[in-house]
């Protein structure tokens, strides 16, 4: 596995080693020791999967407040997404900065997003499946969202008229949220 740094040092693109032959391919999607070697030291406790039927489906920006914050390791196993991580740690030198990467079934890249970051993605194709590991359990009382088009963050989704959930439509701006992360 190879870890590729992003403009936000804590967010890491993971490029697995893929072994292919005439039968197809094989790759290791998770190895605690290899993840630690590239700077990821998370104790994952839960796996999640989502399906988006239509291109333009946007999910995010989501996070869980402390004490139930989650680090995530995201991969797209069908179709393609633009995956986004936003630093929402007050006092951080990269506060409100974001990074994005295309994750797809073809490129097999993964994105590690540590605690203190909001996460979102937009489906670039129809029939998208996303799987991710989380290092803390889902906590409805700590589940939060920030408006995907918050101008103070300025994520460039490159998607007109995204398909949104009611939760994401009603999400507050970051400055109006009760986000409790500090750097």
Layout of secondary structure:
Layout lengths: L1 E4 L6 E4 L2 E4 L2 E4 L4 H6 L8 E7 L5 E7 L7 E7 L1 E8 L10 E7 L5 E4 L3 E7 L4 E7 L8 E3 L20 H4 L14
Antiparallel strand pairs: 1-2, 2-10, 3-4, 5-12, 6-11, 6-13, 7-10, 7-12, 8-9, 8-11
Structure description:
The protein has a single domain, classed as Jelly Rolls. It is mostly beta strands and 183 residues long. Helix content is 5%, strand content 40%. It is globular and about 55 Å long. A hairpin with a 6-residue loop joins strand 1 and strand 2. The longest helix has 6 residues.
Total strand segments? 13
Strand/helix succession: EEEEHEEEEEEEEEH
The helix count comes to 2
Strand content: 35-45%
- Specify the structural class: mainly beta
Report the average pLDDT across residues: 97
CATH homologous superfamily identity: Jelly Rolls
**Overall domain count:** 1
Please identify, by name, the CATH architecture: Sandwich
**End-to-end CA span:** 28 Å
Task: Using the coordinates shown, work out and report the CATH topology.
Answer: Jelly Rolls
- What summary fits the major beta sheet? 6 strands, antiparallel
